[in-house]
Design goal:
It is a single chain. It contains 8 helices and 8 strands. It is an alpha/beta fold. The protein has a 5-stranded parallel sheet, sandwiched between helices. A 3-stranded antiparallel sheet has the order 6-5-7. A hairpin with a 5-residue loop joins strand 5 (about 125-130) and strand 6 (about 135-140). Helix 2 (about 30-40) packs across helix 3 (about 45-55) and helix 6 (about 115-125) crosses helix 7 (about 165-190). The longest helix is centred in the last third of the chain and has 25 residues, at about 165-190. It starts with a strand and ends with a helix. Bound molecules: adenosine monophosphate.
């Protein structure tokens, strides 16, 4: 099963992906994570990507595609992939289609997680991440038990691109570039809209009920 998760930054794509991974044995591939990894390893690509990411702007597609296509060669993707963060604009729709075609696969389901702007802003402002292992926290809904990360005792920080002015820019860019994707996939008839306000467990329940009813594989 190949799934695409759509939704603004902070809409909860990561939390839903974590649960889908466990239940269906498919793997989440987040281009944001791939890019952050390249930045932290200080690769040439990472150094370029950082310039865009720090401003909340989209990294040029060819760089993101390179990371994504490498990642998909890994055998843990053979069973299926949860795409998170790619495509992010109209141009990238075709790039993903080509990538999947090479693997003789196609998207089976697109999930659009819908969350009002005010809720997104408040979530992003309270979002934290472990600087060592990347585990995500939210100071309101999912705070760490102690001062440091529960997984690895790493330092818990605010992601550079979760800072307030960058957040505003990321949301503008989302509205401008990513919303047309919703129209595209909705016309194709493979998209489901999910209300992303509520508990992670309830949202997940709605999603898996749909997957089971429609027998998405
Ligand atoms: P995310 O973690 O998905 O919010 O992504 C963090 C940042 O990585 C974004 O603000 C962009 O700068 C960059 N990024 C992630 N995915 C893409 C993509 N598909 N195309 C271009 N830039 C991306």
């Amino acid at each position: 099963m190949n799934i695409l998760l759509l939704g603004a930054p902070g809409s909860g794509k990561g939390s839903q992906a974590e649960l889908l991974e466990k239940e269906y044995g498919i793997v989440q591939v987040s281009t944001g994570d791939l890019l952050r990894d390249a930045v932290s390893k200080n690769t040439d690509l990472g150094a370029i990507a950082k310039i865009y990411m720090d401003k909340g702007e989209l990294v040029p597609s060819n760089f993101v595609l390179e990371l994504l296509s490498d990642r998909l060669k890994n055998h843990d993707c053979d069973n299926g992939v949860i795409f998170d963060g790619f495509p992010r604009n109209i141009e990238q729709i075709k790039l993903l289609e080509d990538l999947l075609e090479k693997r003789e696969r196609e998207l089976d389901l697109v999930v659009n997680i819908d969350v009002p702007f005010e809720v997104i802003t408040s979530r992003l402002n309270s979002r934290r991440v472990c600087s060592n292992c990347g585990k995500g926290y939210n100071m309101i809904s999912n705070p760490p038990k102690g001062k440091n990360c529960e997984n690895c005792d790493g330092e818990i920080i605010v992601r550079d691109d979760d800072k307030e002015d960058v957040v505003r820019n990321r949301l503008d860019i989302y509205n401008e570039n990513t919303k047309p994707l919703i129209e595209h996939y909705s016309k194709k008839g493979i998209m489901i809209n999910i209300n992303g306000v509520g508990s992670i467990a309830n949202i997940y329940k709605g999603l898996t009920t749909y997957i089971k009813e429609k027998k998405v594989q």
